[in-house]
Write a structure and sequence with these properties.
The chain is α/β, with parallel strands linked by helices and 307 residues long. The protein has a single domain (22-289), classed as 3-Layer(aba) Sandwich (Rossmann fold). The chain contains twelve helices and eight strands. An eight-stranded mixed sheet has the order 1-2-4-3-5-6-7-8, with helices on both faces. Helix 3 packs across helix 4 and helix 6 (162-169) packs across helix 8 (194-207).
Length: 307
C-alpha cells in the first residue's frame, strides 16, 4: 500500500469517526465480519437499513433511542462497514441465516424491530421464523410479499451487460441523495468506493425476485405466508410516498396482510426518508415504542437453522 493510500484510509477513518461517532463492533458470522453499533441499555431495538444505505442512516435514531433502549444496528453483509465478500451469494435466505446467528450470538430473546428497505425484508424473514421473540414492528418502505412490481429503473439495472455497467460504474442505484449535504453524501458513498465496494449492490439488484421460481421469490413467499402472525402484535408502517423503489402499491399490500398496522405516510420524502424527514420519523418511532415496547420476558432464545 502506498503512502497516498494509507493517508486516504486514515482521512476516511477520521471522517467516519466524526460523522458516525459510535463504537465500532464486529462479529464473526460464518466466515465474515458483520459491523454493528450497540448503544444504550434496556429493551432491545434493532434497526435494519435499506440498500445501498448503511447504519449511518440511523445515526440520529441511535443517539435518541439509546437514552432509553439498547439500540443494535447491524450493517448487512456487503454494505456499510461489514465485509464485502465475493463468495457470499447475497440471497435473502442467506441473509436471514446470518441474522439468525448474529442475534443468537448476542443472546437476545426479545426484540423491537425497525426495518427499512431490504433490511426490513431480511428482518421480517427472521421475524416470521421467531414470532414470539418480536415485541413490536416498525416497517418503512420495504416488501414482504410476492406481488411486488419491479420499477423500470430496477429492471434496466438487471439487464445483462448494461445492468452491471449502470450499477457498478454509473451508480444508478445510488440516486436520490443529490440534495443531501456534501458531508452526508460522502458518508453514504464511502463504503461504496471502487468496483469492490459496489459489487454487493449489483448482487442485491440481481437477487430481487422477478420470476416466481427464483430462490428469493420462494423466500419472500415464506415470509408472506407468516405475516398473519403479526395481526395481534403492535405494528406501525411509515411510508415515504416519493420512494421510487417501494411505491404505494407495496404500502397497500402491507395493509392487506397486516390490517391492524398503524399507517403513517410522509408526503415529501423518498429513498432517503431518514434524511428528509428526521424529526417526524423520530417522533413516530419514539411514541410507538413508548406505547408498545414490552419488557423482556422468558421468550425462548433463537436457535439457528441448518447451514
Amino acid at each position: 500500500m502506498t503512502e497516498k493510500e494509507i493517508a486516504s484510509q486514515k482521512a476516511d477513518a477520521e471522517f467516519l469517526e466524526k460523522m458516525f461517532p459510535f463504537k465500532r463492533n464486529y462479529m464473526r458470522v460464518d466466515s465474515w465480519h458483520v459491523h454493528y453499533a450497540d448503544e444504550g441499555e434496556g429493551e432491545i431495538v434493532m434497526l435494519f437499513h435499506a440498500c445501498p444505505q448503511w447504519s449511518f442512516s440511523f445515526r440520529r435514531l441511535i443517539s435518541s433511542l439509546s437514552r432509553k433502549y439498547r439500540v443494535i444496528t447491524p450493517d448487512l453483509l456487503g454494505f456499510g462497514l461489514s465485509d464485502k465478500p465475493e463468495d457470499f451469494d447475497y440471497m435473502l435466505n442467506s441473509y436471514i441465516l446470518i441474522l439468525e446467528e448474529f442475534i443468537q450470538n448476542l443472546g437476545l430473546t426479545r426484540i423491537n424491530i425497525v426495518g427499512h428497505g431490504w433490511g426490513g425484508t431480511v428482518a421480517m424473514g427472521f421475524a416470521v421464523q421467531h414470532p414470539n421473540m418480536i415485541s413490536s414492528l416498525i416497517m418503512m418502505n420495504s416488501i414482504a410479499f410476492s406481488h411486488y412490481s419491479i420499477p423500470l429503473r430496477l429492471m434496466i439495472c438487471r439487464l445483462p451487460l448494461l445492468g452491471p455497467l449502470l450499477t457498478v460504474y454509473f451508480k444508478a442505484m445510488q440516486s436520490g441523495g443529490s440534495k443531501l449535504p456534501p458531508d452526508v453524501r460522502k458518508a453514504y458513498a464511502l463504503p461504496l468506493k471502487g468496483k469492490e465496494g459496489r459489487y454487493p449492490l449489483l448482487r442485491y439488484v440481481e437477487s430481487i425476485p422477478s420470476v416466481p421460481e427464483s430462490d428469493t421469490a420462494q423466500a419472500i413467499l415464506a415470509i408472506e405466508a407468516g405475516l398473519w402472525m403479526f395481526r395481534t402484535k403492535p405494528v406501525r408502517i411509515i411510508w415515504a410516498m416519493k420512494d421510487w423503489l417501494y411505491n404505494q402499491n407495496a404500502l397497500r399490500l402491507w395493509h392487506k396482510n397486516i390490517p391492524n398496522a398503524e399507517i403513517h405516510t410522509i408526503a415529501d420524502a423518498g429513498r432517503y426518508v431518514l434524511e428528509e424527514a428526521p424529526e417526524e420519523l423520530e417522533r413516530l418511532i419514539t411514541e410507538f415504542l413508548e406505547k408498545n415496547a414490552v419488557a423482556q420476558t422468558d421468550a425462548m432464545p433463537v436457535k439457528t437453522g441448518a447451514k
